[in-house]
Amino acid sequence: DGGITQSPKYLFRKEGQNVTLSCEQNLNHDAMYWYRQDPGQGLRLIYYSQIVNDFQKGDIAEGYSVSREKKESFPLTVTSAKKNPTAFYLCASSSKGGTYEQYFGPGTRLTVT
Amino acid sequence: GQSLEQPSEVTAVEGAIVQINCTYQTSGFYGLSWYQQHDGGAPTFLSYNALDGLEETGRFSSFLSRSDSYGYLLLQELQMKDSASYFCAGWGGASKIIFGSGTRLSIRP
Questions:
Q1: What's the Cα-to-Cα distance from B67 to each of A65, A105, B30, B52, rounded to whole Å?
Q2: What is the pLDDT of residues A79-97, one digit of tens each?
């Protein structure tokens, strides 16, 4: 079955540590995205990538970093510099011409204490 | 700026019809998408309106009026499993998509 996987589902870290969230897709989609969702809020775009080895900042990129070395993979690193990193992180993908229809992974709930 | 506004909460009765509105302020949106998200889950795509008018998909319909910068999602024959949050999202072409803050739909028996 095609889809998007994110791991782990729950992640706990201490302040001052970098942490990397995994996102893999086998939908053969060109575009991939990372969103942050806070309780009772919508989705805010962190980074997106339209092709391998290229990515752009979204609305809240500060304190985050990404890479896109393979079409299938788009890991997100939450750096120690990020203030208030505790949130629900969602990865998504879409075809190049159909970015209005995004497919989401199950999400990673990150708690930093 | 670009923003989409939705009511924060809507309550309806099982078997009834409910409409969730979305108004947006932007000059750059080509169309409007709708997503459903159950608590703790991932958003799932419901519909997309590129043109003005009504799009119907089973019990769900979505409407867009670009001249009014307004759209809505219509859910018919409500079932308890429809209790979820619903997001409208404006699509500006390429990879530009902006989500509203979501409407939490609660359904009573």
A1: 39, 34, 12, 9
A2: 988 889 999 999 999 987 6
CA distance B80 to A93: 29
Q: Is A66 left (phi over 0), alpha (psi -120 to 50) or beta?
A: beta
Q: Which residue has the tokens 């393979």?
A: A70
Distance, first Cα to last Cα, chain A: 36
Q: Which of B72, B30, B76, B82 is nearest to B51 (CA)?
A: B30
- Lookup: tokens for A8: 């782990």
Q: What sign has the CA pseudo-torsion A58, A63, A69, A70?
A: negative
CA dist B105 and A111 (Å) reads 27
Q: What is the biggest distance separating any 2 CA atoms in chain A, rounded to whole angstroms? A: 40
Asked if B99 lies within 8 A of A31 by C-beta distance, the reply is no
Per residue in B49-94, pLDDT tens? 989 999 998 999 999 998 899 999 999 999 999 999 999 998 876 6
Q: Which residue among A31, A48, A100 places its CB closest to the CB of B33?
A: A100
A43–B99 C-beta distance less than 8 A: yes
Strand order in the sheet with B53-57: B3-5, B18-25, B70-75, B60-65, B53-57
